Amino acid sequence: GVEVGPQPQGVARADILDKMRKIVKHGLDFVQLFNEGKEFPPCTIEVFKIMEKVDYPRNKNDEITAIIHPKLQDQDWQPLNNGDPLFLTLDGEVIPYQGNCTVYPTFINEAAYYEKKQAFVKTEKIKLTAKHLRCSAS
Asked: Which of 32, 66, 102, 138 lies in disulfide reach of 57, CB 3.0 to 4.6 Å?
């Protein structure tokens, strides 16, 4: 599957549709070249691995008590370091990120995840290495 976004539910955006078309085309091109016997050299790519889902701060009645800090909003895939602003309470208090390593949040403040108790997902940036690849069928 391919998920390209972000975009609000029920909204069709031309820029997102264009990105989706390009990624599907690249995938189909790869399949065609692979089936034709093209050899692909080894490669390394940076990816984001999900670490954990992070909920909003809540009170004893399970009500949200803080929102995403404005400096974090719309910063998907950007580094979040210890001490950076994370949440903002309804009283204006900043709740900083407290972590022992840099993380890369994504799905920040997505409306579809409120009911799932997810303010964002913490990811870590890692490198994956692939060996050369070639179709073995004749």
From this structure: 66
Structurally, the chain folds into a number of domains equal to 2
Query: Does residue 124 carry a catalytic annotation?
Result: no
**pLDDT attached to residue 29:** 95
Any alpha helices (H) in 12-106, and if so which ranges? 14-35
Mean pLDDT (the chain) is 91
- Name the band, by pLDDT with cuts 50, 70 and 90, for residue 51: very high
27 and 48 housed in the same domain:
no
Looking at the structure, tell me whether residues 29 and 72 fall in a common domain. no
Share of the chain above pLDDT 90, in %: 72
- Among candidate residues 3, 36, 46, 52, the one labeled active-site is 3
